[in-house]
C-alpha cells in the first residue's frame, strides 16, 4: 500500500517539474502595438472626443440635479467640480492634438 502512495507522489512531482520546465521555457508575451495617435497620454483623438462627450453629458446631468436642490450637497459640488476638470482636460488634449496636427 505504501508503494502506491510513493508512486503517486513521484508522478505528481514529475508532473510539477515538467510544468515548471515548460513555464520557464516559454517565450515572453509580445507587447501589443498601439493604434496611431495613442502616443498622447495613451489616448487617441477618438478616445478624447468620447471622453469630452461623456463628461459634457455628465456635467449637464449633475448641474440639472443641483438646480433642483436648494442647499446643494457637498458631494454633488465635488462631483460637478470633478466633471468640469475632466471635461477641461479632454478639451485641452483635443486642442493639443489639433495644434500638433497643424504643425506637422
From TrEMBL:
<keyword id="KW-0175">Coiled coil</keyword>
<protein>
    <submittedName>
        <fullName>Uncharacterized protein</fullName>
    </submittedName>
</protein>
<feature type="coiled-coil region">
    <location>
        <begin position="45"/>
        <end position="100"/>
    </location>
</feature>
<keyword id="KW-0812">Transmembrane</keyword>
<keyword id="KW-1133">Transmembrane helix</keyword>
<feature type="transmembrane region" description="Helical">
    <location>
        <begin position="6"/>
        <end position="25"/>
    </location>
</feature>
<keyword id="KW-0472">Membrane</keyword>
